[in-house]
Amino acid sequence: MDETCQHLSYREEGDGKSFDTARAFCTVTESFVQPMRADVCNARYDLDPAADCEFYVDPESEAAEDEDADRGGDGAE
Ligand code: SF4
């Protein structure tokens, strides 16, 4: 994969501050991305968010987990 991480977004405010330039924000950790991490988030230098980031969550498996949670009461009736 050589695409920007799907969990990466840009925000102009957060942590009670606002910024002139939007900063990289990770929606998994709910925190701003450190500059060194941003290379992974943006898949620069052959880095792969899915393989090189310990915070990365596969969007498909994340959705499947949500479904499982929704079905938590299955079979009880
Ligand atoms: S690469 Fe990791 S830190 Fe960066 S946006 Fe994706 S999950 Fe978050």
Please describe what this structure looks like.
With 77 residues, the protein is of the alpha+beta class. The chain has three helices and three strands, in the order E-E-E-H-H-H. Strands 1-2-3 form a three-stranded antiparallel beta sheet, with no helix packed on it. The longest helix is centred in the last third of the chain and has 12 residues. It is flat and about 35 Å long. The chain starts with 7 loop residues before the first strand and ends in a 7-residue tail after the last helix. The model has no long low-confidence stretch (mean pLDDT 86). Bound molecules: iron/sulfur cluster (SF4). The site of iron/sulfur cluster has 14 residues, from helix 1.
Mean pLDDT reading: 86
For the largest beta sheet, what order do the strands appear in spatially?
1-2-3
Major pleated sheet: 3 strands, antiparallel
> Which parts are unreliable, with pLDDT below 50 for 5 consecutive residues or more?
none
In this entry the ligands are: iron/sulfur cluster
Return the string of H and E elements: EEEHHH
Task: Please tally the helical runs, counting DSSP H or I stretches of 4 or more residues.
Answer: 3
- SS class: alpha+beta
Would you count the extended β strands for me? Answer: 3
Helical proportion, percent range = 25-40%
Give the C-alpha Rg: 16 Å
Query: How far apart lie the N and C ends?
Result: 44 Å
Give the overall silhouette: flat
Strand content: 15-25%
